């Protein structure tokens, strides 16, 4: 068991790191899939800053405005939807004597359902007339609905939002935690035209942005190129002059996280590799002891006609079997940790079959390498000398 411990810890470390990375990558991809692969955000600040980031140039940039939104809606051709969004963060929603705090109230234009993938557990999205006539209607997230109505139907009930009474027409389906913060569980959505009477939707504190979803039949590069040229035209930016807006996309975050994941993978290989190296020496040591203890048996086998390869394979098989036992113990520990996180911490960690195969493969390779020299030395023993030992 002590000899297997190094292999067990090494496999546990490597597969744990790979499983964690796979889980984070899967959750990130799920967030990206909510938007679709052709979604772009027109914002004041970029999501990713370079090494020579000159923040003072970005401070003076104008926020996206309704004028920008209306001009883009009239000019862009390769898009399925364009929406203007502004968010009043950390607000309190009330219903009778109950309330829910920390809700993000989003003011959105009618095309919001075309730029975001929305699923409803109850009710519907705004109608065209509700969106354009400033109707006091609201859609709330699953967590908000549960906090206000405790499992009762929310549709048709009036809640107090930003000092006004609004009628609930829809409840978003529960999505759970989201890596990119795009979950609608703790959000409330109201029509943009109605929101103009509640707060200044173009003010920087409400984080105005324009979301553009390109057509599925058109590549992201083409949509981005059209949007970029149109925005420069709307803002009347001269050729060669710097942009006064940022075009952000989820692939920017994906690329940065991929770089981070690669570094984490390397760290996992290094830490686990040292443990496996120690474990490999432990297995080799045990095999040398095993050869020493069974030298006379090897001599008897060879005197009865056993070939060198037969003796070699005996000890190779034993070394590989030992490493496999250590690897399987490591995988069992990983599985137990994933189950503990899933059921106790309510955070699902994915143990992919490819990682299981990798763990088993590493164990077999280490077993073959560690056991070869002891097995080779056993196969080369002189039968007469071996029997005398």
UniProtKB/TrEMBL annotation:
Residues of the MacB-like periplasmic core domain: 2-227
Topological relation to the membrane, as annotated: Multi-pass membrane protein
Segments forming domain ABC3 transporter permease C-terminal: 270-383
Molecular function as annotated in GO: transmembrane transporter activity
InterPro entries, per the entry: ABC3_permease_C, MacB_PCD, Macrolide_Exporter_MacB
Keywords, in A-Z order: Cell membrane, Membrane, Transmembrane, Transmembrane helix
A Pfam family matched in the record: FtsX
Record-annotated membrane-spanning stretches: 266-288, 309-336, 356-376
Cellular component per GO, a single term: plasma membrane
Cell location: Cell membrane
Primary location recorded for the protein, binned into one broad class: membrane
Recorded family membership: Belongs to the ABC-4 integral membrane protein family.
Name the UniProt record assigns to this protein: ABC transporter permease
Species this protein is from: Pedobacter quisquiliarum
Lineage: Bacteria, Pseudomonadati, Bacteroidota, Sphingobacteriia, Sphingobacteriales
């Amino acid at each position: 068991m002590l000899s297997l411990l190094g292999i067990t810890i090494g496999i546990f470390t490597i597969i744990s790191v790979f499983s964690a990375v796979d889980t984070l990558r899967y959750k990130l991809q799920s967030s990206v899939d909510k938007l679709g692969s052709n979604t772009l955000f027109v914002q004041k600040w970029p999501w990713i800053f370079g090494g020579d980031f000159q923040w003072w140039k970005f401070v003076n940039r104008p926020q996206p405005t309704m004028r920008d939104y209306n001009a883009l809606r009239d000019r862009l051709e390769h898009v399925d939807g364009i929406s203007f969004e502004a968010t009043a963060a950390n607000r309190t929603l009330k219903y009778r004597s109950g309330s829910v705090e920390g809700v993000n109230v989003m003011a959105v234009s009618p095309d919001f359902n075309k730029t975001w993938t929305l699923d409803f557990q109850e009710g519907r999205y705004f109608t065209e007339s509700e969106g354009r006539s400033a109707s006091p209607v609201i859609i709330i997230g699953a967590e908000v609905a549960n906090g206000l109505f405790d499992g009762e139907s929310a549709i048709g009930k009036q809640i107090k939002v930003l000092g006004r009474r609004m009628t609930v027409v829809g409840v978003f389906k529960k999505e759970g935690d989201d890596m990119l913060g795009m979950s609608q569980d703790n959000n409330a959505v109201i029509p943009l035209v109605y929101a103009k009477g509640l707060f200044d939707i173009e003010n920087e504190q409400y984080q105005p942005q324009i979301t553009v979803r390109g057509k599925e039949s058109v590549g992201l590069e083409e949509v981005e190129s059209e949007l970029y040229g149109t925005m420069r035209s709307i803002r009347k930016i001269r050729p060669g002059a710097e942009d006064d807006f940022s075009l952000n996309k989820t692939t920017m975050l994906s690329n940065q996280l991929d770089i981070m994941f690669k570094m984490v993978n390397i760290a996992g290989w290094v830490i686990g590799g040292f443990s496996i190296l120690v474990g490999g020496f432990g297995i080799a040591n045990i095999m040398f002891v095993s050869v020493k203890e069974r030298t006379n048996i090897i001599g008897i086998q060879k005197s009865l006609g056993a070939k060198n390869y037969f003796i070699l394979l005996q000890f190779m098989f034993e070394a590989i079997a030992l490493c496999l036992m250590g690897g399987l113990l490591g995988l069992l520990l990983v599985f137990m940790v994933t189950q503990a996180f899933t059921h106790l911490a309510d955070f699902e960690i994915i143990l992919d079959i490819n990682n299981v195969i990798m763990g088993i493969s590493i164990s077999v390779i280490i077993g073959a390498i560690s056991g070869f020299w002891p097995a080779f030395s056993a196969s080369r023993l002189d039968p007469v000398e071996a029997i005398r030992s």
